[in-house]
Amino acid sequence: MSLVRWNPLRDFDSFFTPTNRFFSTPEMKNVETSWKPLVDVTEDASEYLIKAELPEVKKEDIHVTSNNGYLTISGERKFEKEDKKLHTMERFYGSFERSFNLPDDVREEDINAEFKDGLLTLHLRKTEVPQASQTRIDIK
Asked: Residue 117 has what DSSP assignment?
């Protein structure tokens, strides 16, 4: 027999998950409606590289946008019901969204994306950032 520490707030926290308890089917009770894909961000001399794991997500269900210095990856992994008895469900389904601040040396029009085997790869090419120059202003 093992002892388990009682946490009185555990069930209270689970009440506020995004799953709709009142209208979902018994099979969908443990299905999350939002999740965050795992992401690696690396950098070399010429570019930043973002790799996002999106297993079982179709290319047409992925959206990559950039706006006002932010890069956003969003989409949906759909739950496909099978005629099998479900014993355990640990994977997440539903919509997802990840946002990143774009560095100053990346122009939004220089971002390229590719998707293969469940891996979204974004290439953010570095550009020269103009050096701030100091200008002397005469006082009149």
From this structure: T
Per-residue model confidence (pLDDT) at position 25: 45
Cα 76 from Cα 54, distance rounded (Å): 9
Closest CA to 125 of 15, 13, 44, 34: 44
As its CATH architecture, domain 32-126 has Sandwich (2.60)
Helix (H) or strand (E) holding 11: helix 10-14
Domain-wise residue ranges, the chain: 32-126
β-bridge pairing 47-53 and 39-43: antiparallel
Residue with tokens 């601040």: 101
Q: How many CB atoms lie within 10 A of CB 75?
A: 21
Instruction: Average pLDDT across each block of 10 residues of the chain; the chain has 140 residues. List them in order.
Output: 57 47 44 75 95 94 93 90 80 90 91 96 90 79
Q: Could you give the CA distance from residue 48 to residue 77 in angstroms, rounded to a whole number?
A: 26
pTM of the model: 0.66
